[in-house]
Amino acid sequence: MNWTPDRLETQAGKRFLVTGANTGLGFETAFELAKKEAHVILAGRSEQKLLEAKERILAQVPAALLDIGVVDLGSVSSVKAFTAQFIQGNTPLDVLINNAGIMFPPPGLTVDGYESQFGVNFIGHYVLTALLLPVLQSSDHGRVVTLSSLAHRNGEIDFDNLKLEKPFNKFREYGQSKVADLIFAIELNRRLAASGSQIVSVACHPGVSKTELLRTDAPEMIETVAYMAANQGAFSTLFAATQPVDGGSYTGPDGTGEVNGYPAPATIAAYASDAKIGTLLWKYAEKETGVSFTL
Ligand SMILES: NC(=O)c1ccc[n+]([C@@H]2O[C@H](COP(=O)([O-])OP(=O)(O)OC[C@H]3O[C@@H](n4cnc5c(N)ncnc54)[C@H](OP(=O)(O)O)[C@@H]3O)[C@@H](O)[C@H]2O)c1
Questions:
Q1: Which fold has domain 12-289?
Q2: pLDDT score of 142
Q3: Per-residue model confidence (pLDDT) at position 215
Q4: CA 209, 213, 219 angle in degrees (round to 5)?
Q5: Active-site annotation, residues
Q6: Would you state the pLDDT for residue 269?
Q7: How is the chain split into domains, by residue range?
Q8: Which segments in the chain show pLDDT lower than 70?
């Protein structure tokens, strides 16, 4: 039977942090979790947009348990400031959902000097996850969910082009950032399992879903492509975040080409599960950011 969030059991007592929760898939994920009584932290870079998203959820779920957290994933210092405040607040956390992302922005670098898609989609989440891991360790069902994409299949990590050293190619650079996300999710799970941690790391993708993702490149396409609704696009995330999936697994829609449908095991490119690449990417992120995981 097709899995939908209607079948989701109560999430009362569990705390989820969703990055990029003010719109698109992140918003739909937060909304469905709030309906099921989870405590949800809506994280994003704009306080105003987060407050508006919170109001939109409260309008439909008046009893929703919601907080907001302002964090710019394109800035390692912003992620560090956010996590320091989070830890100081002694806020428990069960599930971290690394959802925020950008696609096809104009060529540019983050404040730390990474190609912006690689910096926001991967580096920001690497640091966020590393610094929140001690909080997740205290949960009985700690889980990290990272959003990848069908585009990971065309992605490879070019260690000589993570800071826009080569002429910008939006497809290549987006694919690189999304394969980095999938490599990260799988490598993190390897390391968690090896350390005996009870936390699991999983990945998911939303097929092709109608969101604001193309806003900087081709906003007209948001209305013309045959997308799944954003709400259905979030089903994979919700499944990966709440259902008994294996660590290191990848969930996506079950339709033709994984473009749409209902949550099911998705295809992982061999490159993304290559442990040698996982180690290289991990070491790169560790050395570059100066942030390590305590496992
Ligand atoms: N839609 C699809 O078909 C599709 C397909 C494959 C994968 N994905 C993945 O799904 C995830 C969600 O994307 P979406 O489609 O829902 O796109 P979206 O509607 O554009 O939402 C992206 C979210 O990420 C936030 N964000 C962007 N840059 C950020 C930063 N520097 N710091 C913090 N938050 C930031 C945005 O906040 P602002 O509103 O403030 O910019 C927004 O909340 C992404 O990882 C994307 O790669 C989407």
A1: Rossmann fold (3.40.50)
A2: 97
A3: 84
A4: 100
A5: 174
A6: 98
A7: 12-289
A8: 222, 226
